[in-house]
Amino acid sequence: MKRRVVITGGGIISALGSEWREIFGNLKAGKNFVRYMEDWDKYKQMNTRLAAPVDFVMPAYPRQKTRGMGRVAQLATAAADDALRLAGLNGSPELAGGRAGVAFGSSSGSIDSVMDFYTMIALQDMKKIKSTTYIKLMPQTCAANIEIFYGLTGRLITTNTACTAGSLAIGLAYEAIKYGMQDIMIAGGSDELSELNSAVFDTLFATSTKNGTPQMTPSAYDKNRDGLVVGEGSGALILEEYEHAVKRGAVIYAEIAGFGTNTDGVHLTNPNSVTMARAMSLALEDAALDPNRIGYVNTHGTATNLGDVAESQATYDIFKRAVPVSTIKNYIGHTLGACGAIEAWITVNMMREKWFAPNINLTELDPRCGPLDYITGDGRGIDTEYAMSNNFAFGGINTSLIFRRI
Length: 406
Prior knowledge:
Blueprint (H helix, E strand, L loop, with lengths): L4 E9 L6 H10 L5 E2 L13 E3 L10 H4 L4 H17 L12 E6 L5 H13 L9 H5 L3 H10 L5 E3 L6 H14 L5 E8 L3 H8 L27 E2 L1 E9 H6 L6 E10 L9 H15 L6 E5 L6 H15 L4 E3 L2 H4 L6 H15 L1 E2 L16 E2 L5 E2 L4 E8 L3 E8 L2
Helix pairs in contact: 3-6, 7-13, 10-11
């Protein structure tokens, strides 16, 4: 028997803020958080100098619980802690009962630990290698640290799938509960800022080089966009079986109505509009929902030349109408493994507010983009029962989530 899955908590660490009222205010104000990174001037051959860092200080948790955490896992744990607190589950004995698990991902572990191992090989000196060095850089560092931090004994799913890490984690956690394997899941994604992440996209000529006007970029769907900006942060959702949540009197923020994921099978970095559209179609099929019931789509919206066109055309292919859309990346850049979870929680809250953020920095639509309703200006008041959030990643990994307001 398939079970209903609801969201009973959420937490975000982002340049937009951590508390919803602060995030909502910054979205309403149309604030862009991209900065010029002066420290990157030393990399003469790197074109971009732009990023969206987070002013984050790790809470004063017991050291024995955090000594194996690099920044990426610290961000993940802080977001999970906020989410559990909001859900009323922080400290609950249920977390250790075997019916609560974690699904969490990132693009990679912490870069500092990678550099420590590099130093060992380059200098033949192990003085920087500690017992926790590998723990901080291992692919499953976010999920494993959260599991240990809360004493979880249920399932652990790690989704190290770059830009879909957060959304794929939510989707797989949803399925674990839907099909009876778990009752509660902490799900999300995280990534720390590194010039190495920007360099990856820089080599593909996919980064914005509007270094003199950081507030004007990224500008997804705009004719004059010139690429993405890398950000950082973390997002976590608490997913719970519906009857379980009702029985304990939990506040329900939304229901996960549908999830779709697939792969392109063609190219490691170039987007594929056909399989993008298929991922959305799979989510709609899972939700048994007509596309006309979706009142808003939170797009991946990276501001890359090929990505924006492929995604917008795929979205139109599914909806066959000018469905309202906007992207959060124009505010805080591309938070990589965190973006799917950050955008999911923001989408849920915007749906509850019956207001959706505009595409800031969009002044002249690229005529190659699909004929969608690109929200601009002061945002849009929309009263909708359903909203969709989509993400697409290197490796041709596509995800689509559908949320229902209840």
